[in-house]
Amino acid sequence: MQSYPLTEDQIRDYQENGFIALPGVLTPDELSELRAIAEEILDTPYEARVETSRNNAEYEKIFVQKVNLWQVEERIRKFSLHPRLAEIARKLAGAEHIRIWHDHLLTKKPGDSKPTAWHQDRPYWPHNDTGQLSMWIALQDVDTRNGCMGFVPGSHRLGPLDPVNLVNPQDLYPHVEGKTSEDFQPVFVPLKAGDCTFHNALTFHGAGANTTDQPRLAFVVIYMPDGTLFTGSPHVVTEGLNLPAGEPLSGDLFPIVG
Ligand code: SIN
Ligand code: NI
After folding, report:
1. Number of structural domains in the chain
2. In a domain, 230, yes or no
3. Is residue 15 domain-resident?
């Protein structure tokens, strides 16, 4: 495997700011392959556990979400379990081994598009540990016109706050004692197709609406350190699996990838 040339400075930067942009994590061939599959499956119907945004028209104005595609689409699997990408995640997380929590394809459709409200990811997940991180790969160039991601540097140090309702968003900032939005200055991160960002699950992040006439396609893989414990709280990914609370998430559904 050809490793991505991740530097010690980039690892420090990620740990300091809670996010990092990395250029060219996919080769041009990989990018065209993944983009073609993503475009093809955009309108493919899946069962409800995959197509989690279906029947929620307001949610789909923020993004259309297809979850755990690696389990149902052979052609997506190699990207979700990609050793070069997983190795970057393992190094950034500083973990001995990492597992996949889930992947998803997040598409901001053109038209009546809504911003992704500022939020942390960790409060939505049935995990009692931290250290999870999301890789967000742009499948076309992104900037503030079509919903590139923005991050609040250093916000991962504030710890887990209450989850924000993305459809009916509240302002995240008052959840932090004594703070208002004035205290937080986000950085928006335009990317070229095939570049990605990684962000810590506690980092405040969001995205603007897609104001262009083309869909904004992003392929996201969420990794967690090996040993992350399941709390038993309900979540679409663990629904129906009868997993024991208090035990690590492990096995074939959460494989070690790096
Ligand atoms: C987005 O793609 O708009 C948001 C992704 C995220 O919340 O991680
Ligand atoms: Ni998020």
Report:
1. 1
2. no
3. yes
3-state DSSP call for residue 19? strand
Lining residues, ligand 1, CB within 6 Å = 63, 106, 116, 121, 134, 147, 205, 207, 218
**How does 104-128 read in b/e, with b if 16+ C-beta sit within 10 Å?**
bbbbbbeeebbbbbbbbbbeebbbe
CA of 16 to the centre of ligand 1 (A): 21
Beta partners for 65?
106
Task: Give the residue-averaged pLDDT of 154-174.
Answer: 84
Model pTM score? 0.96
Residue 2 C-alpha to ligand 1 middle, in angstroms? 28
Identity of residue 78: K
On whether residue 246 sits in a domain, the answer given is no
Residue type, 147: G
Q: Which atom of ligand 1 is nearest to the CA of 205?
A: 7
CATH code: domain of residue 141: 2.60.120.620
**C-alpha to C-alpha distance for 84 and 65, rounded to whole angstroms:** 24
Residues in a beta bridge with 151: 187, 205
Is position 82 within any domain? yes
* Residue bearing the CA closest to ligand 1, atom 7: 206
**Residue 173: its pLDDT value, please?**
74
Range of the domain at 87: 8-225
Residue the block writes with tokens 């679409």? 236
Q: Poorest-confidence range of 79-88, 95-104, 168-177?
A: 168-177
Q: List, in sequence order, every residue forming a beta bridge with 108; answer none if it has no partner.
A: 216
End-to-end CA separation in angstroms for the chain:
12
41 contacts 73 by C-beta, under 8 angstroms: yes
